[in-house]
C-alpha cells in the first residue's frame, strides 16, 4: 500500500509521518530528498545557481534556503521556475525509493506538493493533515520566526487546504496536541491496514 501524505505548511505532516514510521511504515520524505539533491556538489544545485545566481548560496557554497524562500515567495514566476528545475528529479528519486521498498513495507510518501506534481497518481490512498489557519499561522510564527506578511505569502503560495481535503480519502485532524495527533494517526493506520486485507 502506498499512502500519499500531504497538507498545508505547519499542519503537522512531518510529525504524522514520524508516527506512521513508528507503526511500521516506510516513510519517503520529499523534503529530505530535495535537500539531498541540492547539497554542494550536486548537479541540481549547480542548475539552481545558474538560474538564480550566486546570491542563493552561503559563503561556504551551501544552498541558503532562507534566501531561496525570500525569492520564490515574493515572485510567483520564480517559484514556478524553481519547481520546473527541481520536480522531475525529486519525482524520479521518490519513484526509485518506492520501487525498492514496496514489496517489504507499506509506503508513506510525505510530500507537501503531492497533488501539484501528480504524485497522488502512484498512491493507493491520500491522507491530508489538517489544522485551522489560525493554528498554522501561530505554528509558523513560533517555528520559523516569520512576520505576518511572510506567513501569509507562504500559506498563499500553496494549494488551498479545502482543495486538498476535497481530493483526500482521509483527513487527519491536528488542531490540538501531539498526543491527539499520534492517536489519530494510529487509528487511521488501522483502518488503512484493514482496507488492504
* End-to-end CA span: 10 Å
Give the spatial strand order of the biggest sheet: 2-3-1-4-5
Cα-atom radius of gyration = 17 Å
Uncertain segments of ≥5 residues (pLDDT<50)? none
Q: Structural class, please?
A: alpha/beta
Q: How many helices in DSSP terms?
A: 9
Please give a quick description of this structure.
The protein is 55% helix and 12% strand. By secondary structure, the chain is α/β, with parallel strands linked by helices. The termini are close together.
Question: How is this structure best described in words?
Answer:
It is a single chain. This protein is α/β, with parallel strands linked by helices. Helix content is 55%, strand content 12%. The protein is built from nine helices and five strands; from the N terminus they run βαβααααββαααβα. It has helices at 13-22, 30-37, 43-52, 65-72, 76-101, 133-144, 148-156, 161-166, 178-196; strands at 2-7, 26-29, 107-110, 125-130, 170-173. It has a five-stranded parallel sheet, with helices on both faces. The longest helix is centred in the middle third of the chain and has 26 residues, at 76-101. The protein starts with a strand and ends with a helix.
Amino acid at each position: 500500500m502506498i499512502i500519499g501524505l500531504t497538507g498545508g505548511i505547519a499542519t503537522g505532516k512531518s510529525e504524522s509521518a514520524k508516527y506512521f514510521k513508528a507503526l511500521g511504515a516506510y516513510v519517503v520524505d520529499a523534503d529530505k530528498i530535495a535537500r539531498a539533491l541540492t547539497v554542494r556538489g550536486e548537479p541540481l544545485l549547480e542548475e539552481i545557481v545558474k538560474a538564480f545566481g550566486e546570491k542563493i548560496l552561503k559563503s561556504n557554497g551551501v544552498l541558503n534556503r532562507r534566501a531561496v524562500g525570500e525569492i520564490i515567495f515574493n515572485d510567483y514566476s520564480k517559484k514556478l521556475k524553481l519547481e520546473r528545475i527541481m520536480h522531475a528529479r525529486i519525482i524520479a528519486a521518490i519513484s526509485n525509493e518506492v520501487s525498492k521498498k514496496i514489496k517489504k513495507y507499506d509506503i508513506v510518501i510525505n510530500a507537501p506538493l503531492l497533488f501539484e506534481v501528480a504524485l497522488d497518481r502512484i498512491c493507493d490512498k491520500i491522507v491530508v493533515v489538517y489544522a485551522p489557519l489560525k493554528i498554522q499561522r501561530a505554528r509558523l510564527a513560533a517555528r520559523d520566526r516569520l512576520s505576518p506578511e511572510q506567513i501569509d505569502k507562504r500559506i498563499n503560495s500553496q494549494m488551498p487546504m479545502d482543495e486538498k481535503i476535497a481530493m483526500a480519502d482521509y483527513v487527519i485532524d491536528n488542531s490540538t496536541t501531539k498526543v491527539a495527533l499520534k492517536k489519530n494517526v494510529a487509528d487511521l493506520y488501522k483502518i488503512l491496514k484493514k482496507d488492504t486485507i
